[in-house]
Design goal:
Elements: H1 2-24, H2 34-41, H3 45-51, H4 55-74, H5 84-97, H6 99-108, H7 117-133, H8 139-162, H9 169-184
Helix pairs in contact: 1-2, 4-5, 4-7, 5-9, 7-8, 8-9
Length: 201
């Protein structure tokens, strides 16, 4: 019985999150009411309050869910962030799997990839890896390297969405991998940068 209840909770929360994503493509989050969200999710307000206290709490859970997936991509196979090909390919796979969500979020927040928590998390990961395996531990240099590396990759994804996701994500991934490897080559010893073995996303 408990398992069925858990599945019911998971399903209800997923419906609420999906409904919020749909509404966020239509209006500002601040304009979305609990009543409106409940109606879109085809549940009553009491059911909503059983799982969340506010619309903001649903948004935060969505953000945390996405950040957790990005973290999983960064930590895949316990590898270093310097496994450029592996990390960027996994991020591309995540973006492709969540394309609809990101497309709607980009309309609401064009800076989704260029500012905020996703960028900050990726920059921290790059700085930790370069500090551990690179030729420098200088804070300003590490900050510059992470800014250059992460901003470039995320800008490519942002433009891909801006252009309606029409071009090949495989090609974009390959370009991103090569650019990052070239950019890091002067900071990180070559033997610490795994070979660029491109994989389809």
């Amino acid at each position: 019985m408990a398992e069925k209840e858990d599945l019911r909770v998971i399903k209800t929360k997923r419906i609420i999150r999906t409904s919020l994503i749909d509404l966020m493509a239509e209006k500002e989050v601040s304009a979305i009411t609990i009543t409106e969200l409940s109606e879109r999710a085809m549940i009553n307000r009491k059911t909503f309050y059983r799982h969340y206290n506010s619309v903001t709490e649903v948004v935060k859970e969505l953000e945390n869910e996405i950040l957790a997936e990005f973290a999983e991509a960064l930590n895949g196979a316990n590898r270093s962030c310097l496994d450029v090909s592996g990390v960027i390919t996994d991020i591309s796979t995540l973006i492709l799997r969540r394309k609809e969500y990101f497309s709607k979020m980009m309309k609401l927040n064009p800076d989704l990839f260029t500012k905020g928590r996703i960028k900050a998390m990726l920059r921290r990961a790059v700085e930790v890896s370069v500090r551990s395996y690179g030729k420098t531990t200088d804070r300003e240099t590490l900050a510059a390297v992470s800014q250059y590396t992460v901003s470039g990759v995320l800008a490519l994804y942002s433009e891909w969405f801006d252009n309606g996701c029409r071009s090949s994500l495989d090609d974009l991934t390959e370009i991103a991998c090569q650019m990052v490897r070239d950019g890091l080559s002067g900071i990180v010893p070559p033997e610490k940068l795994p070979e660029n073995t491109s994989r389809s996303v």
